[in-house]
Structures are given as C-alpha cells and as structure tokens.
Amino acid sequence: MKNLSAKSYLVTPLIAALFIFIILYNNAAAQSKVTSALIKPDTTDAQYKAIDSLGVRGGKIKLISDVNAKSGSLAMLLSALLPGAGQVYAHRYYTIPIFWGFGVYFSSIAIKANNQYADFRGKFSESVRLDTIAHQGNQQLLSNRDFYRDQRDEFILYLGLTYLLNIIDAYVGATLYDFDVSDELGGSAKIQFRVPLR
User: Fold this and answer.
1) Backbone angles phi, psi at 143, to 5 degrees
2) From the CB of residue 14, how many other CB atoms can be counted at a distance below 10 Å?
3) CA-to-CA distance for 105 and 81, rounded, in angstroms?
4) At what angle do helices 72-81 and 2-31 cross, to 10 degrees?
5) Is residue 152 within 8 Å of 67, Cβ to Cβ?
6) CA distances from 59 to 55, 64, 67, 188 (A)
7) pLDDT tens-digit series, residues 37-69
8) For the chain, counts of helices (H) and of strands (E)
9) Which of 43, 88, 175, 187 lies in the 20 to 30 Å Cα band around 77?
10) Using one digit for the tens of pLDDT, what is the confidence trace for 153-185?
11) Distance from chain centroid for Cα 23
12) Burial profile 20-45: b = 16 or more Cβ within 10 angstroms, e = fewer
C-alpha cells in the first residue's frame, strides 16, 4: 500500500502538468496570429505596400517570413512547469532526451546517496549510543555518513543546474525559432579575389 501511494504522488503532478501544457499550447497557437507586444516585425504593412508598388517584393529581397515567431517567455514558463515542454513548443525535440536523461541520472544518484546517508546516520547514532565511555561513536561510520550527505547535495545541485539549463535552452530555442539561416543574405554584390600568379 505504501508503494501505491508513492506512485500516486508521482502520477498526479505529471497529469496536472500535462493538462496545463495542453491548455497553454492551445492558447499559444491561438495567439500566434496576434502580434505580440514583445515581438514586433521590422516591416509594417505600409512598408509592404511601398515595396509592392516598386515591384521588388517577389525579387531577390526577401522581407516576409513564412515562419511564425515563438514567445521566449511562454517557452520558459512551459519548461519551468514541465521540463521539455518548452522545447516541444520551440520544436527543439532533440534536446528533450538530453535534459531528461541527465535529470533522471542525477536524481537517481541523489536518491541512492540519500538512502545510504540515512542508513549510515542511523548506524552512527546507534554507535554513539553504545559508546558509553567517549560518546564519539564509530568514526568510519561518521566518515561514510558525511560522504553520502555530500554526494547527495552535489547531485541535487547538478539536478538544479540541469533544470535551469532546460529553461534557458527553451528560451533560446523559442527566440531563435524564426532566425534565417539560409545561404542567401539578401545582397546581390559579389566579392572576387584575384591571386597573382607571379
């Protein structure tokens, strides 16, 4: 019965986080058609009309992007609620297994170290109780207790850093989502270098 209640404590927050993610993702899709106050396009409709009148819009100058911009704030919020959700929003699927893999590894080591710490803490307390002369207990048990406590704290710190990197990665992925990486930079000038043979 104890294991069943522990599993329900894990499943309930995951279902709630998934439900919140679905609601926020649907709201983000609805808001992608509305221009955000944080993300403003460089070219307005008046400039598009002026460019159309010049007949340059379909030429070599590419001013209109077919890619919808992503909100960095929403990506951060999603990743803070459920690690990896901001990466799904920003379409950075390849980073999700990396963060989840490190998160699971660091948390499993921290849990094992915490169990060892609790075990050695109990054994050391018992050795202090049985040492009626000096009341110092077994020093090897004390050393083991301190080692596992430090290891637990270290891996909890690594887990926290992984969580923060997850949020930063979601923000960077969302803000650079519509970044143009094509070979054509819009210019028509060519630079030629001539190397003299003599």
Assistant:
1) -65, -45
2) 10
3) 20
4) 170
5) no
6) 8, 12, 19, 11
7) 444 444 445 444 544 444 444 444 444 444 567
8) 6, 0
9) 43
10) 999 999 999 999 999 999 988 888 877 666 665
11) 19
12) ebeebeeebeeeeeeeeeeeeeeeee
Contact partners, residue 62, CB within 8 Å, separation at least 6: 184, 186
Average pLDDT over residues 100-126: 93
CB atoms < 10 A from the CB of 106, how many? 20
Q: Which residues fall within 8 angstroms of residue 139, CB to CB, at 6 or more apart?
A: none
Provide the 3-class DSSP secondary structure of residue 198: coil
What DSSP character marks residue 42?
S
Q: Which two tokens mark 137?
A: 């207990």
Q: Could you give the CA distance from residue 21 to residue 170 in angstroms, rounded to a whole number?
A: 14
Q: Is 178:69 a contact under the CB 8 Å cutoff?
A: yes
- Contact predicate 109/155, CB 8 Å: yes
Whether 76 contacts 167, CB under 8 Å: yes
Locate the domains of the chain by residue range. Answer: 2-175
Which residue's structure tokens are 């998160």? 103
